[in-house]
Amino acid sequence: MNKTDKAAAIESLKERFEQNEYFYIADASTLTVEQVNKLRGICYERGVSMQVVKNTIARKALEQLPAENNYAPLFDALKGPSALLFAEVGNAPAKAIKEFRAEKGERPILKAAYIASSIYSGDDQLDKLAKLKSRDEVLADILTLLQSPMQNLLGGLKGQGAKLAGALKTLEEREA
């Protein structure tokens, strides 16, 4: 790879990092071509994009991004074979890895994950990451919590209104 190709690869990867607030670094080495294709298929179904990268190119791309994004702790994970998994939902790559492992064994191994400026290091974090709620799930929970008191209030008013209507009807019948 010549200097121009490296610069283009770094720029392309830099754009991917800027566009994705969720990405994982995994070790998918020792997987056969068939297994990698199966993993890519599972990732595709879950909206995850998998890209095998050179660690130096990934590191240089991350170094060019603003320091406040806190990418520096990820540099330790960029050793050995690395694959990047980009997603729009924070827990999607973890679920894809877990699904693949259920069928095929212990790989890929999670090296690190970047979830909206939080960093999770090590394969032992995989279960925690898979259980994370997506932004849509959190919003749905909040809406449910906000709707509950209003539904109780409306239900109570509706019940009291029916009692009042029944009492008025009884009084009207007595007068007649």
UniProtKB/TrEMBL annotation:
Keywords: Ribonucleoprotein, Ribosomal protein, RNA-binding, rRNA-binding. Pfam families: Ribosomal_L10 (PF00466). GO terms for cellular component: ribosome. The keyword Ribonucleoprotein applies. The keyword Ribosomal protein applies. Forms part of the ribosomal stalk, playing a central role in the interaction of the ribosome with GTP-bound translation factors. Part of the ribosomal stalk of the 50S ribosomal subunit. The N-terminus interacts with L11 and the large rRNA to form the base of the stalk. The C-terminus forms an elongated spine to which L12 dimers bind in a sequential fashion forming a multimeric L10(L12)X complex. PANTHER family: 39S RIBOSOMAL PROTEIN L10, MITOCHONDRIAL. Belongs to the universal ribosomal protein uL10 family. This is Large ribosomal subunit protein uL10. It comes from Neolewinella maritima.
